[in-house]
Design a protein that fits this description.
The chain has a domain at about 5-30 and about 245-460 and about 650-795: Multidrug efflux transporter AcrB transmembrane domain (Multidrug efflux transporter AcrB transmembrane fold, Up-down Bundle), CATH 1.20.1640.10. The protein is about 60% helix and about 10% strand. It contains 29 helices and 13 strands. The strands form four sheets. Strands 9, 10, 11, 12 and 13 form a five-stranded antiparallel β-sheet that branches. Helix 3 (about 75-90) crosses helix 9 and helix 16 packs across helix 28. The longest helix is centred in the first third of the chain and has 35 residues, at about 240-275. The radius of gyration is 35 Å and the shape is elongated. The model is unreliable at about 620-625 and about 800-803 (pLDDT under 50).
Amino acid sequence: MSLPSSPRARGAAALLLWLAFMSVTVLVIARGRFDTDLSAFLPARPDAQQRLLIEQLQDGVAARTLLVGIEGGDAAQRAAASRRLAAAMRESGRFEQVQNGERERDAADWQASADWVVAHRYQLSPAVNAERFSVAGLRDAIDETLSLLGTPAGQAVKPLLERDPTGETQRIVEGLIPSAAPRSEEGVWAGRGTPRALLLATTRAPGADLDAMQASIAAIRDAFESQAVAGEPALKLQLSGPGVFSVLSRERIEREVKQLAAVGVLVMGGLLLLAFASLRALLVAMLPVLTGIACGVAAVMLAFGSVHGITLAFGSTLIGEAVDYAIYYLIQARPRSAADPAGSGWRRWRDDNWPTVRLGLLTSVCGFAALLFSGFPGLAQLGAFSVAGLCGAALATRWLLPQLLPDGAGASGLRASLGRIAGRPLRALPRWRPLFLGLGVAAALLLALRDAPLWRGDLGSLSPVPRAQIQLDEDLRADLGAGDARTLVVATAPDPQAALQAAEAAAMRLDALVAQGLLAGYETPTRMLPSIATQQARLASLPEADVLRARLAEATAGGPLKAERLQAFVAEAQAARGARPVARADLPPGPLATAVDAQLVARSGGGWSVLMPLTPLTAPPGATDGVDTQRVREALRGLEGVDAIDIGGALRGLYANYLHEAFVQAALGALAVVALLAAWLRSGRRLLAVCQPLALALLLTLGGLALFDVALGILHLVGLLLVVAVGSNYALFFDQLGGAAAADDDTLASLLLANLTTVASFGLIALSEIPALSAIGRVVAPGALLALLLSAAFASARRPGPP
C-alpha cells in the first residue's frame, strides 16, 4: 500500500492516524480510575509502621468518623436541632453510630451493653484474681463499694450491691470513662468555648469509598436543611473529619482541573491568535498539547492502574511546555528562500531546528525519568506523566504538523514583528552578564546565610484542604475531647489472641507510666475483650461456693452488709466458674463493639494489631504532643511485637525521606542531562554556555523564594525540573545559532512567543487554590522567564555550525 502523494491527502491520512491513536488513548483513560487521597504520596513499599498508618488512613474507623457542629440561635434551639439531626441520621441507615450526648438515647444505647457487662464482669474486671477473693481482699473490696454509696456514683452501685459487692462492674466502667468528655448543655453535647451543639458519627461506608462518603455527607446536609423549623434563627451546620477532607479534596481538584484547563486554553489561544491571526494555526497548535496530555494520562493509567488527581491537575501545567513545540514549528518552518517551492518549509525545520528540539526533549526526559524510580507512587506518576506527555507532544509536532501546515503558520498576525520586538533587548543582554552573575552571588549568599531551612514543607502542603477547614476540625475535636491520638502503642501478632496478650503486657507497663504521672491514660480494647488466657485465669481464681461463703462470713463480720444478703453474689460467682471466655462475636451491637473494632484491626498483609492511643498530660508550650514517645518506648522495651508510634514524627520522617529521595533522583537526572549535552555538544565551552544559564535561573528562582520566606516542598522541586525542561530549549537554540546576536527574527519570535505562553500558563497555575499546583506555578513562571533572559545573555558567541 503506497502513501498518498498529494499534500492534502497526506495531511488527511496523518490526521486520521492521529485520531485513531487518540481514540485508543481515550479508551484506556475511560477504563481507568482517578484517586484524590494522599495515600498515593505515601511509600509503595512501606515498612511496618508506615503500612499501619496507610491502612488506617484508608480503611480505619478514624477515616469513617465525622464531626458535626451546629452554631447559631440559643442553647435550647441548638439542642433541639441536634436531636432532630441525630434522629434523621440514625433513620438514614448510612451511619453505624450517631452520638450527641442525649441522656435518654445514651441510656438506651448503653442499656444492652451495661447488662452484658454485668453478666460477664468476672471475665472483664482487671481486679479479679485469687487475692481479690481472699478474706482480706473481700473485706477491702466490700468496704470500698460501700464507701461509694454516699457519692454520686452510689445511684449506679446500689442496685447491684447484693449481686456485685466487690464492685467489679464499677471497676470495668471506670476503665471506660474517657479522660476528656464533651460538655453537656440542654441535654446534648456542647462546645467548650464556642456556642455550638456537637455530634459524632461513624459511617458504614469505608473511608476509601469517596462516593459513599460524599453521599453520607450530603445526607447530613439534607437532613439538617429539611429539619429546620420556621421562625427559628438561622442555624449553621459544620462538618469535619477525614471523610470530609477527602471529599472536599476531590471536589476542589476536579474544579481546579477544569478551570485551569479552560482558562489556560483561553489565554494561550488568545496569544496564539494574536501571533498568527489564523484559526487554523491555532487548532493545529493545540494538537500536540492534546496528544501530550492524552499520552501522559494513558501512560500513568497503564503503569499504575489509576491516576491521582494532583497528577491530572499537573497535566494542565504540561500545556505550557507542550505548546512550545508547536510554536517552534509554526514560526520556524519557512522555505529557505523565495526560490524554494511552496510546501518545503517543513524540511528546513526538520534539518535545521528539529535536532535542537529533539535534544531539548531528551534533556527533559532525562530530568523527569529519574522520578520514575521513586518509591512514592505519586512522584513516580508525575515522572511518567511528564515523560510520556512531552514525548507525545514532540512526536506529534514532528510527524503530524508538517502534514497539516508544511510551511508553518505564514507571516500574518503579530508573529512578523515579534522577532523585531524581541531582537534588540535579547541581543543586548550579553552586556548584562556581570549584573546577572552578581545577582547569582547574592542569591547564593542569601541561601547560605539563612537561619531557617528553606526546604521545610510537609505532607500537609500537598493537601488542597484550606486552613480554615483544618482549624474547624481542631476546634471540634477539642470540644468533643476526641484529640488527635498522635501517639499510639501498637501490638502486632499473627492472630487476634496473641495481639491481645501483647497489648495486655503493654498495658501493665503503661499503667506504671500513668502511676508515675507521665501519662494521663490510654485506651485499649482489652478492657472489653481481654485475651482468652487472661479470662481463663480470672475465672479460675474464683473460689467454690462453699469456700466463698465461708470467706464472706468472715469478711463481713461486724460490718453493715451481712453475708446472708449476698447469696446472689455467691451463686453468680459459682456460675461464672463454668462460663466460657467471651469472644468478639459475643459483644452486643453498640458502642462497645465499635470501640473494639476500632482498636483491634486485621492487617491487609496478614496478622492483627491492637491500637492503643495514649492520652497525654498537658503539652508543653510549642510542643505538638505531650507524650514522651522515647520514654514510652523505653518502658515497652523487651515486649515482642510492641512499639510506640509518634504519628506526627512518623509523617515528618516519611516526608523527609520522600524529599531526600526526590533530591537524589533529581541529582541523577541532572547528571544524565549534563552527560547527554556533553556527548552531543563535544565542547566544554558550549556545554558551559548551555548549562550556566539554567543553573543561574534555578539559583535566582530559589533566591527569590527564600527572600519571601516560602517553605519549599517536594512539588517546588518538580517545578525546578520543569524550569530545566523549558529552559534547555532556549539555551540550545541560542547555542545552535551562535548567540543572541546571530539569532534570526524567526527564532527569536518563536522563543519569545513560547516563553509568553509558558509564563502565562504557569502564572495562572500559581494562582491555584491547590497548594501543590500553586507551588509549581510559582517556581516555573519566574524560572522560565529567567531561563530565556539568561540563555540569551550567556550564549556562546561563535560561528554557527551545521546541525
